[in-house]
Amino acid sequence: MPFSYEYPHPAVTVDCVVFGLDLAQSELKILLIQRGLDPFKGRWALPGGFVRIDERVEEAAERELKEETGLAKVWLEQLYTFGEPKRDPRERVISVAHFALVKMSDHRVRAATDASDAAWFPVTGAPPLAFDHKQILAMALSRLRGKLTYQPVGFELLPPKFTLTNLQRLYELVLGRALDKRNFRKKALATGLLVALEEMEQGVSHRAARLYRFDEAEHRRLSKSGYLFEL
Amino acid sequence: MPFSYEYPHPAVTVDCVVFGLDLAQSELKILLIQRGLDPFKGRWALPGGFVRIDERVEEAAERELKEETGLAKVWLEQLYTFGEPKRDPRERVISVAHFALVKMSDHRVRAATDASDAAWFPVTGAPPLAFDHKQILAMALSRLRGKLTYQPVGFELLPPKFTLTNLQRLYELVLGRALDKRNFRKKALATGLLVALEEMEQGVSHRAARLYRFDEAEHRRLSKSGYLFEL
DNA sequence: CCAAAAGTGTTGGGACTACACCCATGA
DNA sequence: TCATGGGTGTAGTCCCAACACTTTTGG
Predict the structure, then answer these.
(1) Cβ–Cβ < 8 Å for A214, A229
(2) β-pair partners for A77
(3) B110: pLDDT confidence band, cut at 50, 70 and 90?
(4) Is B203 on the interface with A (CB under 8 A)?
(5) Which of B41, B53, B62, B206 is in the most buried spot, having the most CB atoms within 10 Å?
């Protein structure tokens, strides 16, 4: 392995596919920002930017998310690294894509008020994207689908208190097919990761549903003793 | 997103975790190279090197594998990107790790004769590794484990013609536990991806086993109509 | 009392696990 | 003839899918 100063270095960026769940509209959404500069000026794109020279990659993703969308402390994971030589017309840019899951209930105000250059779009029905971001989105979506069934990540998208129907709707939206209500409830409760609260859903014009929360502590406990989540 | 020339760029490398199956010794192995230069001179490390400025990342991985170990046309997939700021003492280096599966039967000579600076080691019982390669290896192994059961990648490690016992041994080695012979055979044959050959195993001092091959074409056909492999 | 969603059990079939003996071959 | 691994079937259990009606609430 030769010493590297001999070679020109590519730029390294991070991009984030940020998923949010809109229960009111029964839609899975992604957060996009509108580019103010060329290339692709005016186009919508995934939030992201350059990795600083002394910054961890994950850190860069978190920082860019904060700077461009106001989001902080969201669930974030590395997705894949995209490095086609011509993906950015300016210079060689290698981008480490991440995907993030946010509770839209917590962050609704931010993204809605600052709508001039950051906005939520339905996953199906997003505008044309800059660079190879369409491809990145596609991979993020397929990863989310895969992940949902064998890891309890869906809760990152739900509000802290949710109904079983909310949970089911989430799974249906992401997986893209209808699920049987009774079977779904049985399986969900059988995970032992849901805690029934005293509280009931408010302000609906029909029978109110029980609220549940995700049992974070129990999940950590079970993870250590190597069990398998599945839904 | 500011224009990038403002910022210093990190170096970008690829590293490859190359797995091989040694049926003779019933061991899963990885291919390591011995470093000729500092840092970590004399230490064993994953094959890898710098991504050239106009080269695709996958290409770089393939090229380095070829240059350092003589391997070509192996199954290769991106694993994860490692970018801790201090992982290389010289400068900031971000490494896109890959993992590769090779049929040791095809490549046995290469790695064995050129043993001065490339050699196979048992996965458990490898020497201390340079950089953060231990961590990369750990992730590759866990990915391989996960992948094996729901994608037919194991065949990339087996010779073109293999016995069911070979296949079972592979699964046992990777998963780290014994499997029931009758159940394993039933499931393996039920996938419909194995073709029984006329040929029998040769040169064993007991009843000769039937040889099978993996049905590549059938697998492609089934993949398109969205089925799920599982073993 | 009507509309809307919440909530709840059973049954049949398919898949998985556990398990032990005979067979073919070469030395 | 012996040692070594190859090869085979069944029974019990568990899990999953399919399926429809009653309850609660607000309007």
Answers:
(1) no
(2) A99
(3) low
(4) no
(5) B62
Find the helix packing angle between A133-150 and A164-175, rounded to 10°.
Answer: 130
pLDDT of residue A231: 87
Contact A12 B8 (CB under 8 A): no
Q: So what CATH class is A11-147?
A: alpha beta
- In the predicted model, residues of chain A with pLDDT beneath 50 are 1-4, 109, 112-115
User: For chain C, which bases have at least one atom within 7 A of a protein Cβ?
Assistant: 3-10, 16-20, 23-27
d(CA A119, CA A184) in angstroms, rounded, equals 32
From chain A residues 11-50, the ones with a CB under 8 A of any chain B CB are 11-13, 35, 37, 48-50
Among residues B20, B14, B13, B16, which one has the least CA distance to residue B157? B20
Q: What is d(CA A184, CA A142) in angstroms, rounded to the nearest whole number?
A: 21
Q: What does the domain layout of chain B look like in residue ranges?
A: 11-147, 152-224
Residue B101 confidence (pLDDT): 98
Which chain A residues are closer than 8 Å to B91 by Cβ? 4-5
B230 touches strand C (CB under 7 A): yes
Of the candidate ranges A104-118, B49-63, B181-195, B200-214, the one whose mean pLDDT is the lowest: A104-118
List the CATH code of the domain at B152-224.
1.10.10.10
